[in-house]
Specification:
The chain is α/β, with parallel strands linked by helices. The chain has 2 domains: 175 residues, FAD/NAD(P)-binding domain; 136 residues, FAD/NAD(P)-binding domain, CATH 3.50.50. The protein has 10 helices and 25 strands. It is globular. 47% of the residues are buried.
Length: 369
C-alpha cells in the first residue's frame, strides 16, 4: 500500500483533506502530521483580536477532519525530511515513511538581525501563538499600567491587527486605552494594496489616533522599548512583530531546491523541482515563474489542484497544472464591524463589506466554501 504524508495543517492541506473526505483516496495510507491539533484561519484572526469571534470559531479541528478523510493524525512537528530514505523525522523522535510527501507548514516571522525579538516581542506568526500573546497583553492591560503598544510591520496584516487591537482596547477602557503605534521601514504603510484601499485604511489610522512611523527600521526590542537605527526609542508596554515572513528551516535543511529566499521551489504541478514525489503549497512554497504574495487566498486556491495531483502521484497518472492569476480580493477589517475591500485597483468600504467578509470566512471554516 502506498503512503502519503501531509506535513502541516495549513489552508491548502485543509482543502486536500476535505477533498479526500468527499472522495476517499483508495489504496493509500494517509497521515497528517501537525504540531497543533487545529488550524487557525488567518482571515478571522483580526476579528478574534477585536472581540467579534471566540477562539473556537476561528479554528478548524484537524483530527476530526483527518478522520473524515480516512487519514490518521499525528500531533508532532516535522524536524527534517530525509528524501533519500523517504522519511519524515518528527520532533518527538518518531518517523513517518512516505512514498509521496506534501508540505504546507506556513512561514515564520522574519527577524533578520534585530536584537531581542524572540525574547521581548510577540510574533504574529504562528497565528495561534500570536493570538495567545494578545490574550496575555489584554490581561496586562486589565491589570493596569499598560500605556502603549507597538506593532512592527506596516503591511496589511500589521495594520489590520493594530486597528483590531485599538478597537478592543477602546471598547474595554474607553479614553484610558493604551496608545497604538505602527512602525514600518517602508516609505509608506500598506504598500501591497492599491492606492485607494491604502488611503482608506490610512484615514482610519489617523481618525483613531494610531501613530504611523515610516522609514523606521527597528534595531532592538527590549522589555519596555523599541529602538530604531539612529538611536531613537519608543517606550512600549508590549511589542507585536509583523515584519514579513521567513521560510521554515525544514525546507532548506532537508535539501529541497528553494527559491532565492529559501522557500520550497515547485513547478506548475505544485511539485518540488528537485524531488518528484514531494509537493508543496501555501506560504512555505513558491511556484516557479508564478510567484504570488504569501497570502492565505493562494493556499486556498491551490488546494483542489494539490489534492488532484496527490491522487495522481499515488496512482501514477498525469498531473494537472495549477494556473492562478495574480489578482485577488483583499478584505481588510478596520476593527469595528467595518471593512475595506480592494480588487484590481478599485476599493470600497462599509459595514456591508465586513458582513461580506464574515460570510466568506465562516463558510471556509465550516467547510462550506
Amino acid at each position: 500500500m502506498k503512503r502519503l504524508v501531509l506535513v502541516g495543517g495549513g489552508h491548502a492541506h485543509v482543502g486536500v483533506l476535505r477533498a479526500f473526505a468527499k472522495e476517499p483516496l483508495a489504496g493509500c495510507e494517509v497521515t497528517l502530521a501537525s504540531l497543533s491539533d487545529r488550524q487557525v484561519y488567518s482571515g478571522m484572526v483580526p476579528g478574534f483580536v477585536a472581540g467579534h469571534y471566540p477562539f473556537d470559531e476561528c479554528a478548524i479541528a484537524l483530527a476530526p477532519l483527518a478522520q473524515a478523510a480516512g487519514a490518521s493524525f499525528r500531533r508532532a512537528a516535522a524536524s527534517l525530511v530525509d528524501p533519500a530514505r523517504g522519511e519524515v523525522i518528527l520532533a518527538d523522535g518518531g518517523t513517518l515513511a512516505y512514498d509521496v510527501l506534501s508540505l504546507d507548514v506556513g512561514s515564520l516571522a522574519f527577524v533578520g538581525e534585530v536584537i531581542g525579538v524572540e525574547r521581548h516581542a510577540v510574533p504574529v506568526r504562528p497565528l495561534e501563538e500570536g493570538m495567545r500573546g494578545w490574550e496575555r497583553v489584554r490581561a496586562r492591560a486589565n491589570a493596569g499600567g499598560l500605556v502603549a503598544i507597538t506593532m512592527v510591520g506596516g503591511g496589511a496584516a500589521g495594520v489590520e491587527l493594530a486597528l483590531a487591537m485599538d478597537h478592543r482596547l477602546r471598547t474595554d477602557f474607553g479614553r484610558g486605552a493604551p496608545h497604538l503605534r505602527v512602525l514600518t521601514d517602508a516609505p509608506k504603510p500598506l504598500a501591497e494594496l492599491p492606492t485607494g484601499a491604502a488611503s482608506r485604511l490610512e484615514r482610519h489610522l489617523r481618525d483613531r489616533g494610531i501613530g504611523v512611523h515610516c522609514g523606521a527600521r527597528v534595531r532592538e526590542v527590549g522589555a519596555n522599548f523599541v529602538r530604531l537605527e539612529g538611536g531613537n526609542e519608543f517606550a512600549t508596554g508590549a511589542t507585536f512583530w509583523s515584519a514579513g515572513g521567513a521560510p521554515p528551516g525544514l525546507v532548506r535543511d532537508s535539501g529541497f531546491a528553494t527559491d532565492a529566499r529559501g522557500y520550497l521551489l515547485t513547478n506548475d504541478f505544485l511539485q518540488s523541482v528537485s524531488h518528484a514525489n514531494v509537493f508543496g503549497a501555501g506560504d512555505c512554497a513558491t511556484q516557479r515563474g508564478r510567484e504570488r504574495p504569501k497570502a492565505g487566498v493562494f493556499a486556498v486556491r491551490a488546494a483542489p489542484t494539490l489534492a488532484a495531483n496527490l491522487r495522481a502521484a499515488i496512482a501514477g497518472t498525469p498531473l494537472a497544472p495549477h494556473l492562478t492569476g495574480k489578482r485577488f480580493l483583499a478584505l481588510v477589517s478596520t476593527g469595528s464591524r467595518h471593512a475595506v475591500a480592494a480588487w484590481s485597483g478599485l476599493s470600497w468600504e462599509g459595514d456591508w463589506v465586513w458582513t461580506w467578509k464574515d460570510r466568506i470566512d465562516r463558510k471556509f471554516v465550516e467547510g462550506r466554501a
